[in-house]
Amino acid sequence: MTSELLRTSKVGCPTTPDRARPTRDTKLRLHCVFKHTTSFSLKPELRHLPHITFATTLSIAAMRVISYWVFPIISGLMWLGMLLGMLLYWIIDTNREVYPSMSPPQTIAYISDVGAYRLKPLFVTGCVITTIFLDLSFFSDRWLRHKGRLAPNTSVGEKVLFGLSIVFAILGTVGLICLSIFDTYRHKRLHLLFLLFFMGGYLLSAIFICWEYQRLGKKYPQHHSLAASFWIKLVFILVELVLAIAFVVCNFREIYNAAAILEWIVAFVFSFYIWSFMVDLWPAIRTRDKAARFSKPGMAEWSSGSPNAHF
Known about the structure:
By secondary structure, the protein is an all-alpha fold. The protein has two domains: 2-64, no CATH class; 67-292, no CATH class. It has helices at 26-35, 54-65, 70-93, 111-114, 120-146, 156-181, 188-219, 224-252, 256-281; strands at 7-8, 14-15.
């Protein structure tokens, strides 16, 4: 009779005999595992706990980490994978083919040249998926700040700046999707117009969101992710602005090979801008609990000892 009673292990967690059915909630046992383990290996005294496996421990740990920051990761990987696939296809598979859409004496293909023919399905799909997850990153940032999961906007000016960044990001989204659909071979003028929407839209969006983070960084100097994100985006703005101006100048002067190289560089740099939103969204993994969240604007600020104090 005594052997069937619930026993207590040396580490203070409820346990049951090897063949007895568990009498406590699984969450309690998992809490004990997390409390008394390092990394993902169970201590010997915990291995007899029923239904506690390495896979279970790993999955619970993954759930604690995976959050909104995966949106920019997916977006950036999709964009980078698409670009590498198109570039390697043109260099290796086609042996640097000169497409009908290329203007003499051009020998280096633009991204749009490669994406106007056999790889058009990849080009369109890649642009759509990239923009979907990038826009999800934008909207997640706003929602998390509204819910107190990230440092909230405390002034109308900050909200206006964020709103403008969203508007121009949507303009860039429309431009990128449409330029992939209206290719440079069949719809040259429309393609150039949407290229302008894409480059101008995302560049202006970056300027406004950078401005917003600069203001947030002054109000929350202890949250280092804001300063990091500000500087990353500022570098992106300066680099892309210089490259974009050089690209336009080369195009107007009909230096097409140089312009094509600049276009590829601009596109690859854009990947790092997308990934910079991981820095913005990462702190939200530590504010799942309501007690760890920021107070709403107008209420008292959290003390410096808050779990968010060093983001």
